[in-house]
Design a protein that fits this description.
Blueprint: E1 8-18, E2 21-27, E3 41-44, E4 47-54, E5 58-63, H1 65-69, E6 79-84, E7 103-113, E8 116-122, E9 136-139, E10 142-150, E11 153-158, H2 160-165, E12 176-181, H3 183-197
Antiparallel strand pairs: 1-2, 1-6, 2-5, 3-4, 3-6, 4-5, 7-8, 7-12, 8-11, 9-10, 9-12, 10-11
């Protein structure tokens, strides 16, 4: 479990393919690995990965072809957002994030508004029901608050700090991003289905 508060920007140094799966070697930048052990989870651009090898400032993680097929940003050498798994004693500065990407969205606007940036994303239609004004959304691992919703499009505001410390500054119109909807919205939807049908949908 994660919070969506990015702790560092790292870089995918190499990708080794194995029968459609891949092993990533990720330089962790200024992320402190002192308390990370093999088997621990680290979110990479919002995708929960397991550290299978550790170096002084690197870790390796295996990514299945299934994960590669339903996410973006793990198949090329690029800068990535990093967050270590949440401890129960940690502050929950963002919102509860599982690291299980629900779908891939596409940036349709990215422009300055005052000192901040307006980011508008088109979500897959099947995810739109979970996106609400003032609700939470995770974009490439970053916890953000939804400001506006119009059918399948939604917008968020990026303050200068968020732009500075995450990879979102590299986005442009047409960029594809990993989306994870709010866990609570998913459970509310499931409970509503149950109460409306008397059985699981």
């Amino acid at each position: 479990m994660f919070t969506g508060i990015i702790q560092a920007q790292g870089h995918i140094k190499s990708i080794s393919e194995h029968d459609g799966d891949a092993r990533l070697l990720i330089n962790t930048g200024n992320l402190d690995l002192a308390d990370v052990a093999i088997g621990d989870s680290i979110a990479v651009n919002g995708v929960c990965l397991t550290a299978v090898e550790l170096g002084e400032d690197t870790f390796s993680a295996d990514v299945s072809r299934e994960t590669l097929s339903c996410t973006v940003g793990l198949d090329s050498l690029r800068t990535v957002n990093l967050e270590k798994a949440l401890r129960l004693s940690d502050r929950l500065g963002g919102h509860l994030v599982s690291g299980h990407v629900d779908g891939v969205g596409q940036v349709i606007r990215f422009e300055p508004v005052g000192e901040s940036m307006l980011l508008m994303v088109r979500a897959p239609h099947e995810l739109s029901r979970y996106i609400a004004i003032k609700g939470s959304i995770t974009i490439d691992g970053v916890s953000l608050t939804v400001n506006h919703v119009d059918q399948d499009d939604f917008s968020v505001n990026l303050i200068p700090h968020t732009v500075e410390v995450t990879t979102l500054k590299q986005l442009g119109v047409g960029s594809r991003v990993n989306l994870e909807v709010d866990l609570i919205a998913r459970y509310v939807d499931r409970m509503t289905q149950w109460s409306n049908t008397g059985d699981l949908a």
